[in-house]
C-alpha cells in the first residue's frame, strides 16, 4: 500500500545536486516498482497556454502523449486542482483509456508555490485499489512531488 515509508523513500531521491529529470525518474520508478499493483506511474505537465497536459517522466506501457484540456481524470484533477481517486474508471464519464488494463486511477495535482505545473497520474489493474489510501498519505505524496517541482520554478 502507498504509505509513509514509501513516501519517505521517494522523498530521499530529491537531491539538489541531481537534475530534476533524474530525481523525477527515480521517484516515478520507486512508485512503479513498489509492492503495490501500480501498472502505470507518471507525470503530465500542464501547458499553460492551451490547458493540455503533456506526457513527461513515466514508467509502464507507452501512454497517451497529450491529454486535451478538461478531458479525462487528468483534466478533472487539473480543473479542480484537487486529488481525484477513481475506483472504477469504466464508471468515470469521459475516462481516457490509454491502457485497457486500467481499472482504477489516482491523479494528484502538483502545485509548487500554488502554481499548477502538472499532475502525478497512477493507474492500477485492481478495481478500487486507491480507495483505501489515507488522505494524509495522498497529501504527503503530493508534498513529496511538489518539493521536486519547486526546483522548476525560478528563484
The string of secondary-structure elements, in order, is HHEEEHEEEH
- What is the name of the CATH architecture? 2-Layer Sandwich
Q: Helix amount, in percent?
A: 25-40%
Q: Could you give a short account of the major beta sheet?
A: 6 strands, antiparallel
Number of helices: 4
Oligomeric state of this protein: single chain
Strand order of the largest sheet: 3-2-1-6-5-4
Radius of gyration: 14 Å
Strand content bin? 15-25%
Low-confidence stretches: none
Number of domains as seen in the coordinates:
1
Structural class: alpha+beta
Q: Tally of extended strands? A: 6
Query: N-to-C terminal Cα separation, in Å?
Result: 36 Å
Description of the molecule:
With 155 residues, this protein is α+β, with helices and mostly antiparallel strands. It has a single domain, classed as GAF domain (Beta-Lactamase), CATH 3.30.450. The chain is built from four helices and six strands. It has helices spanning 4-12, 20-32, 72-80, 135-149; strands at residues 38-46, 53-60, 66-67, 84-86, 104-110, 118-124. A six-stranded antiparallel sheet has the order 3-2-1-6-5-4, with helices on both faces. A hairpin with a 6-residue loop joins β1 (38-46) and β2 (53-60). α1 (4-12) packs antiparallel against α2 and α1 packs parallel to α4. The longest helix has 15 residues, at 135-149. The chain is globular and about 45 Å long.
Amino acid at each position: 500500500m502507498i504509505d509513509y515509508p514509501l513516501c519517505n523513500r521517494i522523498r530521499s531521491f530529491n537531491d539538489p545536486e541531481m537534475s530534476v529529470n533524474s530525481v523525477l525518474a527515480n521517484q516515478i520508478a520507486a512508485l512503479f516498482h513498489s509492492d503495490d499493483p501500480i501498472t502505470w506511474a507518471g507525470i503530465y505537465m500542464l501547458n499553460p497556454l492551451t490547458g493540455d497536459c503533456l506526457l513527461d517522466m513515466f514508467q509502464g506501457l507507452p501512454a497517451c502523449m497529450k491529454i486535451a484540456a478538461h478531458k479525462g481524470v487528468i483534466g478533472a484533477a487539473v480543473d479542480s486542482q484537487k486529488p481525484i481517486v477513481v475506483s472504477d474508471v469504466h464508471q468515470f464519464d469521459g475516462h481516457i483509456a490509454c491502457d485497457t488494463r486500467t481499472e482504477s486511477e489516482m491523479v494528484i495535482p502538483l502545485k509548487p508555490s500554488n502554481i499548477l505545473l502538472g499532475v502525478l497520474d497512477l493507474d492500477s489493474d485492481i478495481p478500487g485499489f486507491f480507495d483505501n489510501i489515507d488522505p494524509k498519505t495522498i497529501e504527503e505524496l503530493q508534498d513529496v512531488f511538489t518539493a521536486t517541482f519547486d526546483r522548476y520554478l525560478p528563484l
